[in-house]
């Protein structure tokens, strides 16, 4: 890989008593990237982050930061800083002293502390808030102070555990943009924990999708969206239609799958499948083409197509999402709202089809 | 017409009973006593006046200083011991245990009466008591140590034992507010365990520490039963002097004056303690910049 890894995890396993919450995790975090740990609640994201920060010891495995093994270093000796989910800003100190906390522990001279703190407060756009008390801050402001308090220490890696979870939707989007800007200005490596796929796709250079203590898939948001490696991944990132069936034929070019009354053709992507094996196809709602079938007209048979009835129509601003009931599955179809306003209506018979490349063959 | 909002009305309603109680049983008596301290007493009769004689009499009496010194010494030693002993226990209970079992076990010692505990210590510390017999059997001493009982030492040990659950209760509830997250945040920012204690935990439970200290101090410095039963001849405190004025001598004004002098001494200790924490930078606040 071109960029060197700043943090590396080797076979990290974590058990709380009899419960193993992380299974043999290998992961490299590249210098300067925003890496997101994404996954459902309880999958071990926080635990993994706390292992990197030094708050939990690994049961097995090693953690290195900048090439040196930190597995046995306490949190205060590791060159990482953390932004806590509920900020954990010290209520007995004002904003300035909160941000200065780490620098004072390092015995920086007064003047340098003042400069560094002011610079940080400027970076998070809270220049005049130094003498505010913590309880006088709004949620978004507290979030920025927490960010400044961590970043002022110039950590090699900044760990953020669901930092926006406590904020409402509007501020959240604003803070995401802010985080991106701050990331660009400081160049610090970010490890970001979230269970919100939107946050992950907006922010990340790479996403690590976790499930039940294992890494499900790693990749850029585009890769993960376009080429999910598993059903779990396909379902977790964005809306998707899952069609299951058995393999009816396979060759070096393509695989054919029986889906309901029809057949689906998928270009071979290196996944080895056996004849008769049950597999799934993931097709994004926006990758479908849907056409009306006139009354009395016979439904055309064919490859990569399903016939159905429009069950539900939902407006989402510029988009319209339809639910189409087919003999095997109710599928979602999404289109940009057309200017002339012509739309499908509930109860209409339609034919949904897709190009072979639009479907992803999944065996797990 | 002044309007009182619903919320304010409710607030007043909630405060009123305790305020009324305090007013009737503390504030009014305290004011009366204060007024009384400027009166005179003759042959068990109070004569209204405005004189500082009672204060002057107390302040010119070396016995008063001696007993007050004893009281303050008992109070300070007990308060320091109680806070120092109960802080680690509270820390352990809050951060290292899940349930409250240990906490309740310690609080159970409250169930025995104050006097029973004083007598228990008499048994333990006496010449034929647990400590002396053990030490003698171990051959560490030939004669029973007489200074164990009837000494300030006995008073302080007993008072500390009595006050410990109070101190613990106050400190545990103060520490419960210092969520683990704050400790972790400080560690994350580079604080060692000692620095976490001095820069985060102690300032954050400042009120609890001051509360526990002052509570134990005031009660044990004002106590005269324990010193009377365990303190020996030289262990008497101002409390007994004050009580005597009310009970036997019948000189209420003099007793009141001494009570207020003692109160003043307590205030001085309070201010001194708060100042000390401030100097040690254990108090919360804008401490470092500008
Ligand atoms: N100190 C602990 N003792 C016992 N079990 C724990 C402890 N901390 C976490 N766990 C368990 O480990 C698992 C993973 O927890 P973790 O907090 O890492 O999940 P998460 O992915 O961060 O979830 P969320 O999105 O809800 O924050 C959970 O099943 C949790 O109950
Ligand atoms: Mg979590």
From TrEMBL, chain A:
PROSITE patterns from the UniProt entry: ABC_TRANSPORTER_1 (PS00211), ABC_TRANSPORTER_2 (PS50893)
Keyword Cell membrane: no
Pfam families xrefs: ABC_tran, TOBE_2
Species name: Ancylobacter koreensis
Domain ABC transporter: residue ranges: 7-237
Gene Ontology molecular function, alphabetical: ATP binding
Protein name, per record: ABC transporter ATP-binding protein
Keyword Phosphoprotein: no
Family per similarity comment: Belongs to the ABC transporter superfamily.
Domain of life, source organism: Bacteria
Signal peptide: none
Keywords: ATP-binding, Nucleotide-binding, Transport
UniProtKB/TrEMBL annotation, chain B:
Lineage summary: Bacteria, Pseudomonadati, Pseudomonadota, Alphaproteobacteria, Hyphomicrobiales
Record keywords: Cell membrane, Membrane, Transmembrane, Transmembrane helix, Transport
Primary residence: membrane
Annotated CDD domains: TM_PBP2 (cd06261)
Cited InterPro entries: MetI-like, MetI-like_sf
Name listed for the protein in its UniProt record: ABC transporter permease
Domain of life: Bacteria
Record-annotated ABC transmembrane type-1 domain positions: 68-273
Bilayer disposition of the protein: Multi-pass membrane protein
UniProt xrefs under Pfam families: BPD_transp_1 (PF00528)
Localization, UniProt: Cell membrane
Transmembrane segments: 12-40, 71-94, 101-120, 153-175, 196-219, 254-277
UniProt cross-references to Gene3D superfamilies, sorted A to Z: MetI-like
Family membership noted in the UniProt record: Belongs to the binding-protein-dependent transport system permease family. CysTW subfamily.
